Amino acid sequence: MTIRLLIVDDHEILLRGLMLLIDGQQDLEVVGTADNGEEAIEKTLKLRPDIVLMDICMPVMDGLTATRKIRKLMPEVEVLILTMLDESDHLEEILESGASGYLLKTYGETEFFSAIHSVYSHLPYLYPHAMKHLMINQPEVSKSTKTSKKKVSLNQSNLSAREQEVLVLLSKGFYNKEIADKLFISVKTVESHKSKIMAKLQLFTRHELVSYAESNGLLNRKSDGD
User: Fold this and answer.
1) What's the burial of 58, exposed, middle or buried (CB within 10 Å: 0-12/13-18/19+)?
2) Cα separations in angstroms, 226 against 159, 168, 179
3) Residues with Cβ < 8 Å from 127, sequence gap 6 or more?
4) pLDDT 10s per residue in the chain (226 long)?
5) Angle at 122 between CA 203 and CA 5, to 5 degrees
């Protein structure tokens, strides 16, 4: 299946560079481009891409404002933030905007494509420094990940009851919107829970999360939405 992408960036050289990079991938397709947040919203509604690759600093409307509006209008569309600047100090704001991932443009091709496939699989993606920043500023995350380099057990994970429910539904293949509907919470809240789950468990792929849930007996549990 081809992943349909909308690129939003006001720097023409960077935009064309991304298009050229993506053009060499058989499973990726650029369906459109935009150079500001307002146009990004219009193009998203018109083209219905799977993922919007969103810059932050742009004229007319910034990327985070556009992300909030896109996620409200079309919650099934994932947004991957791409920026030249390390915005770790604003990480909470970025996650609260509804963005599914955050990556610096200075990272290489492997990281770039990994981020795209991760958010396409409805798994949040943070580049390593951003993840480290999140862990430092989340005491419960740091405590659980520093106890051992081995896979964290359920008792060690410090996952809240709600995070466990989200993990169960995620592992069963439900999409963000479906999880939100089942648990009577917003899609944005689901994204926030997923980011914290991945940080606490140090697991970054759907396969790893499913294996973790299965090995800890979570798949035999019923969630509030069952």
Assistant:
1) buried
2) 20, 11, 11
3) 102, 103, 104, 107, 111, 115
4) 799 999 999 999 989 999 999 998 889 999 999 999 999 999 999 999 999 999 998 989 999 999 999 999 998 999 999 877 655 555 667 777 888 888 887 777 878 888 898 888 877 777 544 444 444 445 444 444 343 334 566 666 788 889 999 999 888 878 778 888 999 998 778 877 887 887 778 776 666 778 888 888 887 765 555 5
5) 125
Question: What backbone torsions phi and psi does residue 184 show, to the nearest 5 degrees?
Answer: 60, 45
CATH class belonging to 138-216: mainly alpha
Return the HEC string of 69-137. HHHHHCCCCEEEEEECCCCHHHHHHHHHCCCCEEEECCCCHHHHHHHHHHHHCCCCEECHHHHHHHHHC
Q: Do the domains spanning 3-129 and 138-216 agree at the CATH topology level? A: no
- One-letter amino acid at 61 equals M
Q: What class, spelled out in words, does domain 3-129 have in CATH?
A: alpha beta
DSSP class of residue 2 equals P
Tokens read off for 37: 């947040």
Domain ranges of the chain: 3-129, 138-216
How many helices (DSSP H) and strands (DSSP E) are in the chain? 12, 6
Task: Spell out the residues 6+ positions from residue 165 whose beta carbon is closer than 8 angstroms to its own.
Answer: 183, 223, 224, 225
Q: Are 196 and 156 in contact (CB under 8 A)?
A: no
